[in-house]
Amino acid sequence: MPKFVTRYFFSAFTISLFIVLATGCYSPNVSIARKIDGERDSAIPRTIPVDADVLSTKSVFREEEGAGAMQEAVSSIENVENDEASSTGKNEIGEQSSLEAAMDLTETADEYWVDGDVEKSLEALDQAYGLIVGVDSGGDPELIRQKEDLRYAISKKVIQIYASRYTAAKGSHKAIPRIMNKYIKREIELFKNKERRFFNDAYKRSGRFRADIVKALKEAGLPEELSWLPLIESGFKVKALSRARALGLWQFIPSTGYKFGLKRTNWIDERMDPEKSTAAAIAYLKELHAIFGDWATVLAAYNCGEGTVLRAIRRQKIGYLDNFWDLYERLPSETARYYPRFLAVLAILKDPARYDMVLENADTSPEFEAVTVQRQFHLKTIAEKLAVSFEEMTALNPELRRQITPAAPYSLKVPAGKGRIALESLDKLQAPSFLKKGYVFHRVRRGENLSLLALRYRTSISAIEDLNKLRRTYVLQVGQKLKIPQMGT
C-alpha cells in the first residue's frame, strides 16, 4: 500500500472517497451512511427533499492551496482501485488482528489530530486503510461488517481532516437567514397545492415531539428552527421508512445511526426513539456545521452526505464555496431542493394566512412515566393489564420492533399514573407464545440471503436451514416466510 506522499494527497484513502462520492446522493438510506456517503432519501412522499437554511454561508476553501489540493485528491481516485487490488490478500497477521491494528491506528490518528499534527494523523489513517483492504473476509458476515465499518470511519475521518484544513467556518450556530427567491416560491406552491394534505398532517403530528426537540436544540446551542426538519424528512412519523432504508423522525440509515449511538438489535431500533434519534441528529448537525460553517450547506450535506457536497464545491469554477446558491445547481436535484424546501416550511409557518394555509391544532405530547422491566412482554398483553389501548402503548414505545420488550433491562413507557399497576402486573404476565416456540417468522425481502438473516437475528445459517428444512443449495424467494431461531436479544 503506498504511503502518505505529499501534504495534500492521501493516496489509498481516496478509495473511500470514491465509495462516498461515486455513489452520489442516496436519499436518507444507504449502504454506508446515508448522510455521509450520499445515501439519503426521506420516507415521505418525497417528490422533493429539503434543505434547511440559509445562505450566510462563508465556508471558504483557500483558493490556491485548498482548491488545488481538492482537485488533486479527487482526480487520483481513478488510480486507487489498482492499489487496493494489489493489496488484497497480503495480510500476514490474521484477519481479526489486522482489523484490530487498523482500529488502533485510527484512534492514534484521532490523537494526532487533536494535538494539531495533521500530517501524522493522515499517515496513521493511510496505514490503517492499508491493513483493512488486505483483509480477506472470506464471506464471513461479521468480518464484512467490521471491515466496512472501519472503511467508513477512516474515509469519514479523512474528509473531516481535509475539509478542516481548507474551510473557514464563519456561519453562526444560531443564524438561519430568511430569504425568498424563485426556488423557495416553487416549494411553497407545492405545499399549498399538491402536498397540502401532507403538510397539514405532518404539522398536526409535530405537536407530539416538537417541544422536546426544541428544548434539546436550545441546550445544544442550535437554532430552534431546525426542529422543523422532521417535517420534510419523515412527516413527523416515527416509523417512516424510506426506499433507502432510512428510518425514524430524522431518517437515519443503520450505519449513520450506529455512528451516532443509535442501537439496533433483534428487539429494538433506536432510530425510532424520538429522544435518542433527536440527540443523534443534533450531534450530526453540529459535526457538519464544524465542517461547512453555514446552515444551507450543512443541510445539503445532511441530505446527501458531505462527500457529495465537497465534490460539488470542487467542481465550481471558483474552487471554493462562497454562497450556497452558487452551489445549488451543481447538487443532485433532491438535495438542491432540500434547502429551499426547508425555507418554504419556515415561511408558511411564520404566516400561514399569507399563503392561504389553514393549519389544524397540533397534537399534544402524551404524558407518560417509565418503569424498568427485566423480562420479555408483549405490549398487547401489557395494554390489557393496564386497561389502555395497544395503539397507545405502541405509540409510547415505537422503538420496539416487534412490540415485545427485549430480554434485558428495558425502560418501558406507560401512560401517566399507570406505573405502579404495571409493576404489580408484570410478574403475573406470561412470555409471548412465539418465545415458547423459540422462533419468529420473517418475510424474505429482495436482496436478502441466509447469511444476512443469520447476522441480523444473531443466529446461524445452519440453524435457519435446520428449522426450515432447507438444503444448503436452496435459493430464497422474495416473499417467502421463514422461521428464524431466537438466539439473541
Structural write-up:
The protein has helices spanning 14-22, 34-38, 63-75, 77-87, 95-114, 118-133, 141-166, 182-192, 196-206, 210-220, 229-233, 254-259, 274-292, 295-304, 306-315, 324-327, 333-350, 379-386, 390-396, 419-426, 433-437, 450-456, 461-468; strands spanning 368-373, 410-415, 439-443, 481-485. By secondary structure, it is mostly helical. The chain has 4 domains: 11-21 and 59-166, no CATH class; 39-57 and 171-355, Lysozyme, CATH 1.10.530.10; 368-434, no CATH class; 438-485, LysM domain (Membrane-bound Lytic Murein Transglycosylase D, Chain A, Roll), CATH 3.10.350.10. The chain has a two-stranded antiparallel sheet. A two-stranded antiparallel sheet has the order 3-4. Helix 6 runs antiparallel to helix 7 and helix 8 packs across helix 17 (333-350). The longest helix has 26 residues, at 141-166.
